[in-house]
Amino acid sequence: MDDTAEIGKQAYNLAAVLHLDGRSADAVPYLWEAETAFAQLRIDLGPVLLLRARALRAVGDAENAEAAIRRVVELNTPRDVQAQAWLLYGHLALDAENGGECEKALSRARALASDDPALRAGIEGLSARLALRSGSPAGAGAAFDREAEYFRRAGRFRDMADALERAGSAYAEAGDAHEAGARFYRAARSFFGQGDTPRALRAIERAAASAEEGREFAWGPAVASLFEEIRRTPVAGGPVESNE
């Protein structure tokens, strides 16, 4: 194959698949290949460098991940790509227990980001993580709620359910059983609708546990009904109904 652009595109796409599959170390060499090809053609390197930074963070190489991020923000790359780079830098800062640097990165990401719902979800996710580190689980729960809503708007329903589950955990940490149970119920309903019965069971069990804290909640009957429905599915270990 002599088509340099196609070589770069295929290398980038393969790296993205490997990274999403949890094989980030295997993705890095393909990103070098993609960068070489795109550089020859003067194609924007921002997305390649951003993906490299993500992969390097995933394998624990924070130093080189930060170096890749610095290159992204120095490029004349689209503002949304730069915003994603600052969000990633914020996560790296929190990994290193540096809340001050995370706040700066979050501010820069907000200033650069468009109204793209997936990008806005990323901003709220980092905000929630920062709130947890700052000792504000209720604030984190509210940010995770916003993250879930943005993922819903983006049509990323698996990510929405994950965010709802994180919101439930944050509210539980804040001692708010009502809000925690409601989020775990919504997460369970979403996971179940997507066919992920084990995750649905885990979430509905946490919702049920919230309902056992001595108070009557409006969502209690719905939790009990969904719990029984999930419990009776074969994957969850319930009885298999015979048609005989």
Number of strands: 0
Largest sheet: none
User: Which regions contain 5 or more consecutive residues with pLDDT less than 50?
Assistant: 239-244
Separation, N- and C-terminal Cα atoms: 59 Å
Helix content: over 70%
- How many structural domains? 3
Mean pLDDT: 92
How large is the count of helical segments?
12
Instruction: Write the element-wise H/E pattern from the N-terminal end onward.
Output: HHHHHHHHHHHH
Silhouette: globular
User: Beta-sheet strand percentage?
Assistant: under 5%
Q: What class, by secondary structure content?
A: mainly alpha
What is the gyration radius calculated from CA atoms? 21 Å
Can you put this structure into words, describing what you see?
α8 runs antiparallel to α9 and α9 packs antiparallel against α10. This protein has three domains: 74 residues, Serine Threonine Protein Phosphatase 5, Tetratricopeptide repeat (Alpha Horseshoe), CATH 1.25.40; 86 residues; 62 residues. It has twelve helices and no strands. It has 244 residues and is mainly alpha-helical.
